[in-house]
Specification:
Elements: H1 2-18, H2 24-36, H3 42-54, E1 57-59, E2 62-64, H4 73-94
Antiparallel strand pairs: 1-2
Helix pairs in contact: 1-3, 1-4, 2-3, 3-4
């Protein structure tokens, strides 16, 4: 259950950064990047995957991309926090 919520949160963050809906190809690419990430934690792997898939970069609380009307920094920050929470839940469920 936690895994589905985590993946959904990853997709929501990627969608907001991309500024458009994700295609099935986008979703597959995110999962591929997540599974091959060299990062340590689930949250770090997710951020790595979303960055690679969207070409938009998150660094701490600073987001490096051109802000569009459909994506406010506050909303992205909230989505990032939610993804980290879901990643933590999934990690606990797996252990």
């Amino acid at each position: 259950m936690a895994e589905k919520e985590f993946i959904k949160s990853m997709y929501e963050l990627a969608k907001r950064l991309k500024g458009n809906n994700l295609t099935e190809s986008d979703k597959k690419r995110i999962i591929k990047y997540f599974n091959t990430s060299k990062k340590t934690t689930t949250a770090e792997k997710a951020v790595d995957a979303v960055e690679k898939a969207t070409g938009k970069f998150l660094s701490g609380n600073i987001i490096y991309f051109e802000k569009s009307a459909s994506s406010t920094l506050d909303n992205i920050d909230n989505l990032l926090m939610q993804m980290k929470i879901e990643a933590s839940k999934w990690e606990k469920e797996r252990n």
